[in-house]
Amino acid sequence: MLQSCISEIGRSAESHCEHTARTQPPLSDVVLTLVEMGFNADTLPAYAKRSRRMVIIRRKKSLS
Questions:
Q1: Cys-Cys with 29: which of 15, 16, 36, 37 at CB 3.0–4.6 Å?
Q2: Which intervals hold domain Bromodomain associated (predicted)?
């Protein structure tokens, strides 16, 4: 279910991006997609700053 939701966000943001002749979707295309899907965009900043969030950090490739 989560994978389907994330895939749909990506496809829709890409569609908005291509419609305006861009190659990569900016944050505004992603927010527009979320609003069209029924998310309340006003709550996103507070959600992103919550104290118990999990952050996944990309590891740097070692040169060994």
A1: 16
A2: 1-42
**Distance set, CA 36 to CA 40, 50, 57, 61 (Å):** 10, 24, 29, 38
CATH topology of domain 2-48: Histone, subunit A (1.10.20)
**13-37 pLDDT, tens per residue?**
999 989 989 888 898 899 999 999 9
**Cβ atoms 25, 17 nearer than 8 A:** yes
Single-letter residue type at 26: P
Residue with tokens 């900016």: 26
